[in-house]
Amino acid sequence: MTDETEGWADQLRANRAEKDRFLAEHRQSPIPPDDRDDFDGLDYFDPDPTYRVEARVAVYDDPDLVEMETSDGRTVQYRRVVAFEFDVDGEEYTLQGYRQEHDDSDGVFVPFRDKTTGQQTYEGGRYMELEPDRALADGDEVTIDFNLAYSPFCAFSETFSCPLPPAENWLETTVEAGEKDY
What average pLDDT score do residues 28-33 get? Predict the structure, then answer.
């Protein structure tokens, strides 16, 4: 690894350790209180810079409403605001990015499934959140770091209701990056 890659991996490990502390100790942890004493951290895929991909942005001028099923059988609505096109292992893929209906921020919610879902990762899929420093525009390039993919709170406890990735965000590839199943 180069010095830059090693620095990125060290920062990723530090962020993971901080999350593990939160899950073990914080009163708002999604891990049930009775399970926290035995919790010694999540399982993660090793940091892998090949899963930090450059994605081309396509912004939807008139974002459609998308109904997403939730882990407790309800539906929630999000707006499909942007598409990210990227390559993994020489194959091109697209993920849709969403915002809640009345969210005016520049943040983008990217729920997805891949071939690890239900095997090595949470059966309901994983999430990524992008926080660009400005509004995205057609043709922009952004880094999508699958090493930051995480399980939603409903992976830890049935008391949470989480949106499930819609079929348009089911990747036909294996993404061995980010959090593994709890």
Answer: 94
Q: What is the DSSP string of 111-126?
A: EEB-TTBTTTB-TT-E
d(CA 163, CA 80): 14
Overall average pLDDT of the 53-79 stretch: 96
Tokens representing residue 182 in the block: 């709890």
What are the residue ranges spanned by the domains of the chain? 43-169
Here the tokens at position 141 are 């390039």
Q: Which two tokens stand for residue 138?
A: 């057609």
The pTM score is 0.93
Give the tokens for residue 92: 């091109």
Cα distances (Å, whole numbers) of residue 56 to 8, 21, 81: 22, 35, 14
* 162 close to 71: Cβ distance less than 8 angstroms: yes
Task: State the Cα torsion 31-32-37-40 to the nearest 10°.
Answer: -20
- The 10 Å Cβ neighbour count of residue 58 is 17
